[in-house]
Amino acid sequence: MNGAARVLKGTTTVLAVALFVAVSGCTKKPDVASSRTLAIKTETDPAALAQLRNAAEQGNAVAQTNLGVLYATGKGVPQDYSKAAEWYRNSADQGYAGGQSNLGGAYLLGEGVPQDYTEARKWFRKAADQGDVNGENNLGTIYYRAEGVPQDYSEALKWFSKGASQNDAASQDNLGGMYYDGHAVPQDYSKAAELYRKAADQGYVHAQNRLGLMYEDGQGVPQDYTEARKWIGKAADQGYAVSQHNLGNMYYLGLGVQKDYPKAVEWFKKAAEQGDADSQLTLGGLYANGIGLPQDSVAAAKWLILAKAGGGEGATESLSEIEKQMSPAQIGEAQHLAKEWWAQHQQR
Question: What would the mean pLDDT of 68-83 be, rounded to a whole number?
Answer without folding.
Answer: 94
